[in-house]
């Protein structure tokens, strides 16, 4: 009974922290973007403009929550919840530190892949239910982009699985005690990072939204807190991909003893979150066909080659 | 465990029924996804976590997305739903339903009369065991499936390939200006 209570408490704390950090990331992103572009960014509400998130949330709640009469109402309402739900579900298997994780299942990595593949429905259904040409185009692009990038996201991770011999994320972290997997799997790391950006449809790859050509892509018709849900889902996705990169390639919670493991994990994750924001500030958006070609003609063969070489070397050493 | 199994099984049966009876194709597909997810939970309960997650990744995550993708492109509106409604009259489905009822009764009888051989004690099949069985006794099937997929990929590449045509007059190679 005590153990169950502990888990419930852990889940409640995790939910609260994750959603709070995700909301606060909006402030971080706007401040950092401004910094890199020689501006101030939001600095009026509260110290350093930290309360801008609260102000934005209140504003979103008071906006008219409009469902277009031509939309498919049920699916229109369900779609934004899917992305937030699937991303939050994925955090179940992320090992933050020894003892601080909800489920240590032996197919953890596959669970992450499964949840990220279910996240596609949010975009597809949201775009379809809006019954709007721009939304539909955004949804089509989103679906094809996410399906193709999922393929080599999974393939690039198999090298890590080979080296650690397990799908369990704690085993993968423990296998990195001597050296981090970035040393032996740099190609897989690059592929996973690119695929992760495409999965969260962040700026270099935000073709489903593409505000300069598609209004707002799949969420053109969304307003109020439904739009907020897509937004929070995106930032949760950034956190998830960053923490997965850290777990799989940068030794997770491992680090020198002078800081507790959880602090190492958070520090490493924030480096990657900042990298995501920097990418948004610095890279232009590729054209849609360029994105697909790049994926299928460069990343997929690279991922397969990496898999082949890793397997051969692992066998040879054995 | 048994309770969870029966709840999931009920969800799965209900969702599958809804797949058949919905008039709107996208709604039907959504119920199909729910059905696949509940099947995956059943796999997990029966001690096959690897198969359970592959069910989600491949069926719910990839194949069903492609289905929805195609249906989105077809732009089926209210008229299709109306057409479906007309097709789903009792006159149409009573016959097949009656025949399936007979098969169902037989199945029920068989399950009811058969004695379970080795009940309880569910063995968990981990990913290593799946890999060993795929690459040892079933290696031929795996290779055949790989060939089939290769044929599909080559076919898709052939259909998808097209000559690059420059629509803009400045980029055209023929100098007929």
Provide tags for this entry.
heterodimer; A: 318 residues; mainly alpha; globular; B: 177 residues; Four Helix Bundle (Hemerythrin (Met), subunit A); 0% strand; extended
How are the secondary structure elements laid out?
The complex is a heterodimer of chains A (318) and B (177).
Chain A: H1 2-36, H2 52-62, H3 73-90, H4 108-118, H5 120-130, H6 133-164, H7 169-174, H8 181-184, H9 186-199, H10 224-249, H11 261-282, H12 288-317
Helix pairs in contact in A: 1-10, 1-11, 3-4, 3-5, 3-10, 5-6, 6-9, 6-12, 9-10, 10-11
Chain B: H1 2-21, H2 25-45, H3 49-74, H4 78-87, H5 90-113, H6 127-135, H7 139-160
Please provide a brief summary of the model.
The complex is a heterodimer of chains A (318) and B (177). By secondary structure, chain A is mainly alpha-helical.
What does this protein look like?
The complex is a heterodimer of chains A (318) and B (177). Chain A is mainly alpha-helical. Chain A has one domain (67-317). The relative contact order of chain A is 0.13. In chain A, 69% of the residues lie in helices and 0% in strands. Chain B is mainly alpha-helical and 177 residues long. In chain B, helix 1 packs antiparallel against helix 2 (25-45) and helix 2 runs antiparallel to helix 3. The longest helix of chain B is centred in the middle third of the chain and has 26 residues, at 49-74. Classes of the chains: A mainly alpha (318), B mainly alpha (177). Chains A and B meet through helix 4, helix 5 and helix 6 of A and helix 2 and helix 3 of B.
Tally of individual helices of chain B: 7
**N- to C-terminal distance of chain A:** 45 Å
Shape of chain B: extended
The SSE order of chain B reads HHHHHHH
The count of β-strands of chain B is 0
């Amino acid at each position: 009974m005590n153990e169950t209570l502990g888990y419930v408490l852990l889940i409640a704390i995790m939910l609260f922290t994750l959603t709070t950090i995700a909301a606060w990331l909006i402030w971080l992103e706007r401040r950092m973007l401004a910094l890199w572009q020689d501006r101030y960014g939001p600095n009026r509400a509260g110290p350093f403009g930290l309360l801008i998130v609260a102000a934005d949330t209140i504003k979103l709640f008071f906006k008219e929550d409009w469902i277009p009469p031509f939309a498919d109402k049920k699916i229109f309402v369900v779609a934004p919840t899917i992305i937030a739900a699937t991303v939050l579900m994925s955090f179940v298997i992320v090992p933050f530190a020894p003892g601080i994780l909800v489920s240590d299942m032996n197919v953890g990595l596959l669970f992450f892949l499964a949840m990220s593949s279910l996240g596609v429905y949010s975009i597809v259904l949201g775009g379809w239910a809006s019954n709007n040409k721009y939304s539909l185009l955004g949804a089509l692009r989103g679906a094809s982009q996410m399906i193709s990038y999922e393929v080599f996201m999974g393939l690039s991770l198999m090298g890590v699985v080979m080296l650690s011999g397990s799908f369990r994320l704690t085993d993968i972290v423990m296998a990195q005690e001597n050296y981090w997997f970035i040393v032996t799997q740099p190609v897989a790391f690059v592929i996973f990072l690119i695929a992760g950006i495409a999965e969260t449809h962040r700026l270099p790859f935000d073709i489903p939204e593409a505000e300069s050509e598609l209004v707002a892509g799949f969420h053109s018709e969304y307003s109020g807190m439904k739009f907020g849900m897509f937004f929070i889902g995106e930032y949760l996705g950034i956190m998830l991909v960053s923490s997965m990169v850290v777990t799989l390639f940068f030794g997770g919670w491992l680090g020198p003893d002078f800081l507790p493991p959880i602090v190492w994990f958070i520090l490493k994750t924030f480096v990657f979150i900042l990298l995501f924001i920097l990418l948004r500030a610095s890279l232009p958006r590729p054209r849609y066909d360029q994105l697909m070609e790049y994926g299928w003609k460069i990343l997929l063969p690279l991922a397969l080659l990496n898999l082949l070489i890793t397997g051969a070397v692992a066998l040879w050493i054995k | 465990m048994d309770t969870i199994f029966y709840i999931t099984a009920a969800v799965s049966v209900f969702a599958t029924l809804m797949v058949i009876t919905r008039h709107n194709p996208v709604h039907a597909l959504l119920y199909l996804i729910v059905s696949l997810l509940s099947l995956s939970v059943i796999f997990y309960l029966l001690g096959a976590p690897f198969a359970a997650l592959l069910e989600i990744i491949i069926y719910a995550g990839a194949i069903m997305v492609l289905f929805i993708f195609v249906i989105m492109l077809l732009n089926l509106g209210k008229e299709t739903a109306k057409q479906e409604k007309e097709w789903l009259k009792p006159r149409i489905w009573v016959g097949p339903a009656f025949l399936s009822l007979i098969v169902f009764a037989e199945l029920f009888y068989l399950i009811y009369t058969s004695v379970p051989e080795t009940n309880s004690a569910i063995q968990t099949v981990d990913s290593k065991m799946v890999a060993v069985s795929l690459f040892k006794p079933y290696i031929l099937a795996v290779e055949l499936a790989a060939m089939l997929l290769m044929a599909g990929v080559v076919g898709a590449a052939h259909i998808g390939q097209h000559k690059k045509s420059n629509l803009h007059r400045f980029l055209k190679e023929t100098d007929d200006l």
